[in-house]
Amino acid sequence: MSTSSTSHATPRETTEGTVYTVTGGDWDEVVEAAAKADDERIVVNMGPQHPSTHGVLRLILEIDGETVTEARCGIGYLHTGIEKNLEYRTWTQGTTFVTRMDYLTPFFNETAYCLAVEKLLGIQDDIPDRATIIRVLLMELNRLSSHLVCIATGGMELGATTIMIYGFRDRELVLDIYELITGLRMNHAFIRPGGLAQDLPPGAVDQVRAFVKKMRKNLTEYDKLATGNPVFKGRMQGIGHLDLSGCLATGATGPVLRSAGLPHDLRKSDPYCGYETYDFEVPTTDTCDAYGRFLLRLEEMRQSLRIVEQCLDRLEPGPVMVGDKKIAWPAQLALGPDGLGNSLDHIKKIMGTSMEALIHHFKLVTEGFRVPPGQAYVAVESPKGELGVHAVSDGGTRPYRVHFRDPSFTNLQAMAAMCEGGQVADVIVAVASIDPVMGGVDR
Amino acid sequence: MSDPKNGANGPKNGTGANGVNPDKDLNAQNLPGQRGDQGEIIGTRRGMFGANNGGDTSGYGGLVRTVRLPGATSRPYGGPGAGGAYGYFDEVADELEGALEEQGLLPENVIEKTVVDRDELTFHIAREYLPVVAKTLRDDPALRFELCTGVSAVHFPGDKGRELHAVYHLRSITHTRLIRLEVSAPDADPHIPSVVSVYPTNDWHEREVYDFFGLIFDGHPALTRIMMPDDWQGFPQRKDYPLGGIPVEYKGAQIPAPDQRRSYS
Question: Mutation test of the interface with chain B: which of A77, A401, A434, A441, choosing the one with the most B Cβ atoms within 10 A?
């Protein structure tokens, strides 16, 4: 082997072979040139562990003084391979995974996934009304809790800790309802292909009614505290600007798109779960900025309360799972000493009296049900925008492929357009107004 | 329903032990996932309980199931609520074909096939024409699909010559419509033209598909990994990429890793 030498790498022979030592050369010139340049252009890395980057989001900002000249996102720090994992579980077990994607909107993930599975099965029309109404109820409560977190953390990032306390105080009320209905505050896996895991427990309707009443009162506090607050407006108005063409180009949906004045809401334009029968409005603003998005979220919460009330009025006793015993979970779940599980009556039946029921239970629980081959796309309007599920089946008992089009992922692309040319301090406001949740972005 | 000469003959052409081949029995409603002879074959599944490497003592090793995806549909395509009659799917197809002809393209070269299944319209597009079709769908006032909801991909190792499918869902806010474009590429030549110039929102989506499937989008401004670390080897969402995992002990029993567990093909 011949050893060639360049001006910056001198070779030397060792027992391990030839070793090149790279030295000085133009590095000194680079440093000198950087020192001479009188602009203050520097690259700042914000995150992935920074209190105001919404989880593990990494922002790479090139700044000139206080002005951001270029902004880029680094994502993937919370990638957990949920889509891959789904391919190794039954269709029903999938809800346990998808609920953890965007962990602030679990019921939207579950509903979108279940609607896609039901579309593949062709049983959309067989879902009991009660199950659909409870799905809508939970989704609208979820819209409240998600928007509350957005406003709370957004306020905290501005230094407005009172808003943070208010937001989390009210979100706690919603989480209490989740806990009563599903047993869990997060990661519910309550909505299942074919219906729901369980019916509403006693007292749930009363508690939701009391919540709606209380929340109506509490929502005015946000108006009093923030809407007219000159400091709050000063930090939010004109920040994170993205107009309609920018929204459509970057594919932004949800409050970001509606803040540009387009009243696009899948609940109206492509209704699912019977949303066309509910009475509510889609608010818009034309300010294209973070303040407009804040106002939209407040108004959307009011509209959600209206829908929740309509749901409560419509609830009629009835089944919450599809009648087809080849799909429906075989047992009634009941609360036992070690948590939620199959009811003792059901266990007594399958273990004591009916071998056929035992076989059926075993087959359905371990093997699951088969889904005819094909693909389906279902989209729901999550608090962040269009949450789409592309589900593919090969006729087996497991999903062949499930892809989530998460609105946080798509909307986050608009970050660069919103931040470049603005101040460093406004990056936080702009990102908060997109409301990205990294669990959904990275999946 | 697709081409009637492709089957639909019911049990009489059966070849099974009882004179009936359930895979060809269109009336076998109780057999899930069966499409008779219709549709497009993308693979076969053998056996049961995941015992694919010989050593199957379960007695189910002889089971063979052909996987058929919905095949090409003939006119009228209908649409949601059209009930088999002329619907918005036909309108979109007519407009698209007309717009392609205006640009001097033969629609039958561009659109490989059209599938209507579960109230959804899918155009299978020859990959070299994808940017033209996307631009036409976006810009033609009668089509106007302003919003692309990104790209998803599916890996069908059994679909020889078109193993990698890229799936685009396009939404028209103006006309409140939704269609799907499907483009395929062979594993040996995993290239598809990028549509970032038409739909900038696909920037990250195409990076994600590249990251997980190794599909290379030609013309993408910066096709790099987005979820996995930059130096990651392999493409995790491909079917030949193992899930991984380790066995865990729960209440005294060894639970195998998820991809080693019993499966029901």
Answer: A401
